[in-house]
Amino acid sequence: MSSRPAHDLLSRIFGYDEFRGPQQAIVEHVAAGNDALVLMPTGGGKSLCYQVPSLLRDGTGIVISPLIALMQDQVEALRQLGVRAEYLNSTLDGETAARVERELLAGELDMLYVAPERLLTGRFLSLLSRSRIALFAIDEAHCVSQWGHDFRPEYRQLTVLHERWPDVPRIALTATADPPTQREIAERLDLTNAQHFVSSFDRPNIRYTVVQKDNAKRQLLDFLKVHRQEAGIVYCMSRRKVEETAEFLCKEGMNALPYHAGLPAEVRAANQRRFLREDGIVMCATIAFGMGIDKPDVRFVAHTDLPKSMEGYYQETGRAGRDGEPAEAWLCYGLGDVVLLKQMIEQSEAGEDRKTLERSKLDHLLGYCESMQCRRQVLLAGFGETYPQPCGNCDNCLLPPDAWDASVAAQKALSCVYRSGQRFGVGHLIDILRGGDNEKVRQFGHTELSTYGIGKDLDARSWRSVFRQLVASSLLEVDSSAYGGLRLTDGSREVLKGQRKVMMRRETPKAARERDRSGQ
Ligand code: ADP
Ligand code: ZN
After folding, report:
1. In this protein, which residues make up the domain named Helicase C-terminal (predicted)?
2. Average pLDDT of the residues of the chain
């Protein structure tokens, strides 16, 4: 049986009884000398997919990885299993690097991990051409995607491997789930003819929850109370907010640490180490934190701001529950987040194509946030995967939201936008609707508008929710100016004419009760 040697190796060296999911098919495919593109969620077991074939084939398996820390961990782990593994990156002194190079040439290495910039040097390529290579593994292959936040320009040049060593199999791996990025990886790495192995991206043990932001700090605190003494990550949009949040949580008696690219390298490394080694640390971080962090018992990932895309959200939340035990992904978002992200796209210098792509990415994310359907279904649908039944493990499944017919409220809101000249932000619009009597309302003569005071039936918070949902579903658009004024869209005209019904999500009764109790 062809799988025999692979299987023997798996149990003899790695101590596992069985391959998991598609691992065996991938291993056999690559060991037989074929190219593969592997899409597997974090924790799915990508490493074995190239480690086993590296050992099965003659020569050294060359693993290209952008993550220096991870490289060292993996090499360390392999050595403990008796595998002759080494790495080459900027942290090595010249003497050690020279020894590793000699061992490569002498055929004494099973595997060699190398950073892409190192691999691409003329010196290293020439070394490779004098060595025997079992395979090339390109880890974190989404780094080749220009539009992802992990873009590494050197990844673009990795096609040189195929040009110079057409007979050496290549295996590219990523936990990136969205189809456009997958296509881009295949094209950029010259892997369109490779077999693609796509695993399900579902992470059944992660419970997804989205809450409407009204007092983010208190909401975060309430969420963390459920996770006392547990390790988790709190993602924030900016460095400043990372520090504020960490400080705030410490004051509240929690073991919180900050992490962002603006901190000195020693502080970052120390905080990361504590997160990995100690129990119950809450890491407050920007998205600079997390890639390659292999901590199995992260029990929650909280976002206090809207992430940039669904793909990013999936990656970030994927760091929770790698051990398979229950974990939570919690997202707190509000109108301000939507306005900010929409403005960032409109104001960016990017070309129209790129903006169109970013808009559609943001819409997918907003669709997820506003959905009244099972979150998992929405999440996976965006990655081209159908999840047949509601999952029973997300907020919408566990506590189904109320929907209400908001057509009349939407008409009031939209006509208020129209009457006031399509240039004001939400705060002012709500003042008009609720018949507020303040300086700005009087100054613009807005007490005279026909929409003045027609919205007293809803409180300000409910109006904010109405406006947020209108913006999220593109029934209103955000001005690209700095003021965030709102304008009508083609869709809003249909609503105004009564041609389109608008159903909205009512914040859950439970959430409302909690808020009332706290007097917010
Ligand atoms: P990824 O790189 O996809 O995030 P890893 O390769 O780090 O995942 O594997 C995740 C965890 O699963 C590791 O602890 C690994 O040892 C374990 N694992 C992988 N394959 C198997 C298997 N066939 N049997 C048991 N454990 C496995
Ligand atoms: Zn669900």
Report:
1. 216-363
2. 91
Instruction: Give the residue, 258 or 2, on which the prediction is more confident.
Output: 258
Q: Is the CB of 42 under 6 A from ligand 1?
A: yes
Q: What tens digit of pLDDT does each residue of 320-353 get? A: 998 889 999 999 999 888 888 888 888 888 888 8
d(CA 249, CA 188): 43
ipTM, two decimals: 0.97
Cβ-contact 192, 312 below 8 angstroms = no
Alpha carbon distances (Å) from 398 to 284, 321, 322: 28, 20, 23
Q: Are 303 and 289 in contact (CB under 8 A)?
A: no
Is the CB of 46 within 6 Å of ligand 1? yes
- 74-81: Cβ within 8 A, 24+ apart: 74/47, 74/113, 75/111, 75/113, 78/51, 78/110, 78/111, 81/13, 81/14, 81/15
Q: Which residues contact 143 (CB under 8 A, 6 or more apart)?
A: 66, 116, 150, 151, 152, 155
Q: How far does Cα 259 stand from its chain's mean position?
A: 17
Give the nearest ligand 1 atom to 14 CA: 16
State the closest ligand 1 atom to the C-alpha of 42, by its place in the atom list counted from 1: 4
Both tokens assigned to 80 = 């403990």
Is the CB of 176 inside a 6 Å radius of any atom of ligand 1? no
Ligand 1 pocket residue status of 199, Cβ below 6 Å: no
CB atoms within 10 A of CB 270: 13
Using one digit for the tens of pLDDT, what is the confidence trace for 464-487?
989 988 988 889 988 776 677 899
212 near 465, Cβ under 8 Å?
yes
3-state helix, strand, coil in the chain (%, to 5): 45, 15, 40
Q: What is the pLDDT of residues 393-446, one digit of tens each?
A: 999 999 988 889 999 999 999 999 999 999 999 999 999 999 998 999 999 999
Determine if ligand 1 sits within 6 Å of the CB of residue 483: no
